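Title: Prediction job returns without error message
Component: structure pipeline
Severity: low
Priority: P3
Assignee: unassigned

Description:
Job completed but the reporter wants confirmation the result is attached to the right record. Sequence as submitted:
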Amino acid sequence: MPYIDLTAELIELVERLEPIARPGGRGRTMMIMGTGRQTGASTVAREFARIAAARSKRGVWLFDLDLASNPQRRLLVPQKGTAFDAGFGRNPFWRVEPEVARARLVARQAEQRLYVTEFQRAPGEVQRLSLRSAPDYWNAVRQSIDLAVVDAPGNNRAVLALAADMDGVILVSDERRPNPDAINARREAIESRGGVVAGLILNRAPDRGQWAA
């Protein structure tokens, strides 16, 4: 898959995380969330993870919260290869009903030091799937990898349950259709759940992206 033309501000976002892993070997968890549909947040998350992976030592994992479709895995790893367990030995950030249903999160290598998650379930067994706060899980992630980039669908409010577990949330809005009300509403929703909005990316600008901290 060819690389897209990245804005200087997206590269700057990675540089602000230097070193990618903090002193003591503790990694970071960053969520990328659109303020609505079709803002390009998934593309931003994917390219952000690629840039960060090139500068990491223990690796970068791209967590795709579209658990039903796994679009990031399909884009980055078209042919299924070896899968690694992504449970980290902790209670996960997802819940299935009934609890005995067979389901798991795995990670597949997309590029050197870059892995992407895929949610797997036994056909017909999972009746309901939900997201939940799991601070112990994300702490285990920080101890194991340099950076987790969490791609959160902008049209799914369930992802807000994870906001407080992140080191920061980067909002992505469409430069061609700016909606200040939607941006403020999403910021308030994140902060009301204990999350931290670390910045805003205006995507698809006519000449160059803009970054507002």
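Comment from assignee: result matches the submitted record. The radius of gyration is 16 Å.
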